[in-house]
Fold each of these.
Amino acid sequence: MAALATTGLTACGDDDGGGGEGADATSLKLWHYEGANSAMGVAWDRAIEIFKQEHPNVTVTFERKAFEQIQQNAGMIINSAEGPDVMEYNKGNATAGLLSAQGLLTDLTDEATRRGWDKALSPSLQTTARYDDKGVMGSGKWFGVPNYGEYVMVYYNKDLFAKHGVTVPTTLDQLTAAMDTFVAKGVTPLGTAGAEYPAGQLFYQLALAKADRSFVDNYQLYKNPVDFKADPLKYGAETFAEWVRKGYVSKDSASAKAEDMGTAFIAGKTPMIVSGSWWFGRFKSEIKFDWDTFLFPGNTLNAGSSGNLWVVPANSKAKSLAYDFIDITMRPEIQALIGNNGGVPVAADPTKISDPKDRKLIEDFNRVSSADGLAFYPDWPVPGYYDVLVAGFQGLINQSKTPDQVLDAIAKPYADGVAEIKRG
Amino acid sequence: MAVTLTPAGPARRAPDRHHRGVTRWLVLAAVTLAALAMLVPFAVMLLNAFKSPGDYSTNGPLSWPSEFYTKGLVTYWREADFPVKLWNSTLIAGSVAVLAVVVSLLNAYALGIGRVRGRLWIVGAFLLANMLPQESLVYPLYYFAKEAGLYNTRLAVIIIFTVIQSAFGTYLLASVLGTFPKGLLEAAALDGSGKWTTLWRVVLPNVRPTLAVLLVFFFIWTWNEFLIPLVMLIDNETQTVPVALASLQGDRLMDAPTTNAGALLSLVPAIVFFLIFQRTLSRGITVGAEK
C-alpha cells in the first residue's frame, strides 16, 4: 500500500514557464509502453541509464505500461496525483490534442526552442508535436516531442521477385506491370487486410499519387473543404477498385486483419505488402527469406508521421528533470540506438547505422521527411473515422460497392466530423 | 473462463445409469463432443504458448511447434513481474469473494426473512447495479475514488466489486431465503433465539452450499474483471493478472505466442482455485442433504 502514502500529496501544476520548475525534485516517474526488445525500448533503457549517471541524486521510477491502459485512461491518470512526470503518449487530435486542450499537458514551446528540438525535427514531424487551443495539430504550442517516425512503404519478397523475373519498380506503371506479371503466373501480388487499417492506407497511398501538400493540409488540417468526388480521392478509390478487379488484391482479404497480412508475408506467401515501418523489427527477426523495402513508387507524399510523443503532464512535480530526460532521448547516441534496432529515429545520422537494411529504412524516411512528404494517416481527421474507412474499403474489396458509392459513404462522416471540430 | 466449464459438471452426472440403452450413448457422445469443442480454444492456446514467434508467423496457429519454446513463458513471467500480479489478483478476488458473500447473506436475511417493506424495489435497485454497463460507472467511480484518496489502491477495487457482486448475491439469496421453511424459524423463536442466533445457527447452516457456490463465482468473476482494475490500478505494483496480460498487446503489433503463454499462466490459478473448491462444494451439498 505504498501508493496510499503518496495520495496525500496534492498536485500543484504551476505553469510558470522557465526551466526551473521541479529542478530540486529527487525522483522522476517515467512511463512508456514500448516492448523491452523493441527499438524504442532498447534506446530508452539506455537513455534512462544516461539520465541516472547525470543525475546521481535522482531516483528514476520506470514502469512499462499497457498500451490499452494509457489509451483508455491517460486523461484520468494525469488528472490525479498518481500520474508520471514524463510519459509516452499517442500523437493526434483525439489523444495528445484533447489532453492539451483540457490543460493537462505542459507547454513545451520554450524548452523546444531553448534545447533546439525545433531544429532537429522537420516541419511534417512538428505537425504532430504542436496543438492549437482547440487541440488541433499543426500549429500552436509544443505539447510533445517525438523521438521516432513511421511511414508506409512497400515490403517485398526478393526470392519471389527473382523467381518470377520481376524487378523493383520505380514508377506506378512499373508497379502495375510487375503485378500483371505475378497475376499472369497465378500469384496474388499484393497482400492487404480489409478488416483493419491496411486497406485504408493503401487507398490513401494511391490518392497521394495525385496529391500535393495543399490536399494534405485541407484533408488533415481542415484548411479548405475536401471534394471526395474529385482527384486525388476519386483517383484513389477508382484505382483501388481497378486493382481488385485485376486480381492484384485477393477478394478474401476483405475480412483479413493486419496480423493475417503480416504473417502471410512472413510465411513467404505474398510477394508484396504496402504497410508501415512498425513491421520492420518483427520482419527482421522472423523472416527467413531475402526481403527488402522500397518507397511507394512515384509518390512524393506518403502516409506516415512522427511516432508517439514524450509529454509532460501538467501535474508533474519534476518538470525540469522531465525536460532533461527528453533532451537525452534526442541525442545522437540514443537516436542511433533506435536506428540500429530497427526503428526510425527522427534525428539520426544514417552513417552511424551499421546494418544496410536499417540504413536504407532510415535514408528512405529522411528522404520523405526532408521533402515534407509525411501525409499522416487517412483515419486521422475526425473521431471514429477508422471504422468508416474499414467499412468503405471492405465494400470495394468484395466488390459489393462501386468507388462512387464508397466515396459517398466516407464523405459524409468526414464533413460532419470536421463541422463538429470547427464548432468545438 | 472456468464459468464455462461448470455446465460440464451437472451434464456429466445427467445420463441415468439405471437406463441402459441407445439414448445413454447418444447423450454421452453429445456431451463428449461439447466438452471437446469447449477444449479446442484451450488446446490452441497451449499449442501456441510453446511456439517461437517466427514459427507462429510462418506456420500459423494450428501447426505443431517446431521446437519446445519456453521463452514466451519466461518473458511474460519476468516482464509482467507475475508473482506480484498473482498476489494482487488473489488478494482482490479473495477479499471480494468473502466480503461479498457476507454482505449478500446479511442483506438477504433482512430482505428474504425479515420481510422489509418494499423489498421488491430494493432487490430491483440492487440488480440495477449489476445490469449497468461498467463503462458508464467508470468515471463516477474514478472521481469518488480520487476524492476519497483511494485511487490507485487495491482497496478501491475490493470495495467496488464487493458492492457489485453482493448485488447479485443479494438478489439470489433473497429469493432462496424467501422460501425458507417457516417452521424452522418459528421453532427457533420458541427456543428463545434472537435474530443473530437464528441467522448463525439456523439460516446459515442451511444455505451454506449456496454460499459456497456464490463464493466460487465471486472469486472467478472478480479474477477475470478487466475494465475497472484497468482504470483504478495504474501502478505496476497494484495491477491484477488480466491487466498485466493486456500489456502484451501493443498499438499495431501483437506477440501471439507470448500472449498465449501469458494467458496460460493467468488461467492456471483460476482453474486450481475451481478444482480445490469443487471438492468442498460437493462436500457442502452432501452435508445439506443429510439434514
Amino acid sequence: MENTQLQKNQTPVTYLKPSKGWLSIDFKELWRYRELVYFLTWRDIKVRYKQAVLGIAWAVLQPVLTVLIFTVVFGILLKTPSQDLPYPLFAISALLPWQLFANALQRSSISLVGNANLITKIYFPRLAIPLSAVMAALVDFGVSFIVLIAMMAYYRYMPGWNMLWLPVIILFALLTALAVGLWLSAINVQYRDVQHMVPFIVQVWMYASPIVYPIDIIPEGIWRVLYGLNPMVGVIQSYRWALLGGDQPDATMWISVLVVIILLVSGLFYFRRMEKTFADIV
Amino acid sequence: MSEIAIRVENIAKQYRIGLLQERPDTLRDLVTSNVQRAGRWFKRGDESRSEGPSYIWALKDISFEVERGQVLGIVGRNGAGKSTLLKILSRVTDPTMGYGEIHGRVGSLLEVGTGFHPELSGRENIYLNGAILGMRREEIDRKFDEIVAFSEVGRFIDTPVKRFSSGMYLRLAFAVAAHLEPEILVVDEVLAVGDAEFQRKCLGKMSDVAQEGRTVLFVSHNMSAILRLTQETIVLDQGKMVMRAPTSDAVDHYLNMGLTKQGERTWSDEDIFNHKGPFIPVALRVLNPEKQVVDTVIAAEGFSIEVEYQLSEDISGLRVGIYMMTTRGEFVFTSFDTDAEHMFDEHTTRASGRYISRCEIPPDLMNEGRYVLGVNASSYRIQRYFQDDKALTFTVDATGAPGMQWPEPRLGPVRPKLDWSIGKVGR
C-alpha cells in the first residue's frame, strides 16, 4: 500500500497507490505508534470502570464469584476430580488465564467496529486497535491476580521456580487471543454476525478447556492430541503447573504452540489484506 | 524553484452502491447470494459475472500538485468527492487507481473531536485525542497549558466531557487539533461548527498555521473562509476536478455551477433527500417588477425574491427567509418573512399546504454586481428545517443608479439613493 522512507532532506515521503493482494506487516510503523496503543488501552480501562461504584474491584469480584459458583456446582455437587488440589484453588488457577483470554478475545473481536469513527477519519496502523483491546484485558488480569495470591496464601501453597515461566505462559495466552481476535475483528467489519457469535464461541471454548475438570478425564492418545488443538489447553495446563506444581505439560503443549503460530501469522496477513477496506465498509 | 509537498496523478476512487441490497451484510446473505449465484452460473454460464453490482466513481482522474507552504482550497457540492479526496490524501482509504506522493508528515482533521470519549475528562481527552492525531506524549505535555488556554474550558478540565456544553466540547476538540504540527495539514469543514465568535477564532488560528509556511489543504462550504485563507482553489464536481484557479475565480465558478435556469432554482426530490419534511422547498426565484423570472435585475427599478415551498404538516413558529451574499462570501443581509410584528402575529402557525413567501427589494438599494441567495426555513431555537446557503446567483445592473454620471465602480454591496443637502456654512 504505502511505505515511508527517509530522503536525504529527512522529509518522509508517503506513496499513495491502490493496494492489491497480500501485504507485508510494517512492524516498524507499529512501533512508532506504540503511544497510541498505550492510550487506547488506557482509554478502554478507564472507560470500563467509569461510573461503576466498585470500579476496578470488579476485576477481583468477577473471578471470585465465578470460582464460588464452580466450587459449588462442580466441586461440591458433582465432585469433579481436581488433581489433588483444593477445588477452589484448582478452579481459580485455570480461571485467571481463561478470563484473560476470553476478555481479550471478546474485546478485540468487536474492537474495529467499536472504533469505526477513528478508522473512517484518521490514519494509523489498524493493528493498534485489536492490540490495545488485548492489552486492556491484561490489566484486568493483573488486578485479579491478587485473588490467586490470596487463595494460595490461604491454602498455604508456595509456588516454586516454575513460576518464572508465568510471563511466557501469559504472553502465549495473549497471542492466542490476538490470533483469533485478528480474524474475528476483521471479519466483523463486514459481517456483524461475528459479534453475536463471540459469546457463544467463548462459552463452548471454555468447556473445551480443562477449567472445571482436569485434563486426565480426556483419554490419552488420539483424543488427547485432538484436545491439544485447543491452544488454551496448553495455556491452562502450564499455568497450573507453573503455580501449583503437579504434572508437567506434555507434548500436547507443542500442538498448541503450532496452532497458535499458524493462527497468528494467517490472522496478521488476513488483517493486513482486509485493512485497506475497513474505512470503506465498516 | 519550490518544492512539491503533494503530487497526485489520476487518482480515482470507486465505491459500490446500493449496498443495502447488493452487499451481503450477514453471513446468511452471503450464503444465500452465493447459492443464487451458483444457481445462475449453472443456468447461464459466464453471463452472471458481468452483471455484477453497480459501482460509482466517487473520484475520477484527479491530478494536481501542491507546493510546500501553499494553502489550497477545495470546494464542491455535497457528494462532489471532497471528503473522499481528503481521505485518500490522509491515507484513511486507498485510491482505486492512480498514484500519489506526499512529502512530509500529514495531520488530518477530517472531523473535530475524533476519538473524544464522553466519559473521559477534558484532560484525559486532550491526551487521547492528541495521541490519535499523531502527537507524542511529551509534545502534548509541552502544549497542554496552551491547549487549555485556547479552549477556554479552564476549570472544567477535569470534568467528563459529556457534561460539557456543545460549545465547550467543540472548543476543546479544536484546540487539540489546532496544536498539531505536521508539515501538511488536511482540514475538512472544521469551521462549520460552533458559534460565530469561535469560528472567528478558528479562522484566525488557521491563518496563523498558513503563515507559518505549512502546506494546508482546506475544504469548506464557507466561501468567506476559503477566500480569506487560500490563494488558489480546486473545484470538484461529481468526482471530477473541473477547475483549479485563483480562489476568487474558482469560488465564482463554483457558485454559478449547475444552475438549471437563470434566475430560478428548483429542488427536486433528489436534491433534498435528507430533508424529509415537514418543509419541502420547491423553488427560489428572482423576479423583475413585471413578475418575470430573470437573471439580471435593475437596481433602480427594484425587484422581488420569492421562495415557494410545501408544508407536509402544520408548523408553528416557522420563518422562511433569505440570505443575500456577495460572490466574495460577505453577507449583505438576512431577512425572514415573519420579521414584521404583524406578520409574526398573523402567521404563528402555518397549516400544511403550498406557499410562496415573497419579499420586495426596494429600488436603489443594491449595488451592481453578482449576488448569491441562500434560503433558510426554521423555527427559532427549535429546529432548522432547511438551509441552502448558495441556492441561486443573479446579477444586479446599475442602470439608473445614483451616481452613474461617473463611470466608476462603487465599493460596497449597497448603493442607496440618499438625500443629501448642501448648505453653505461659511465664506
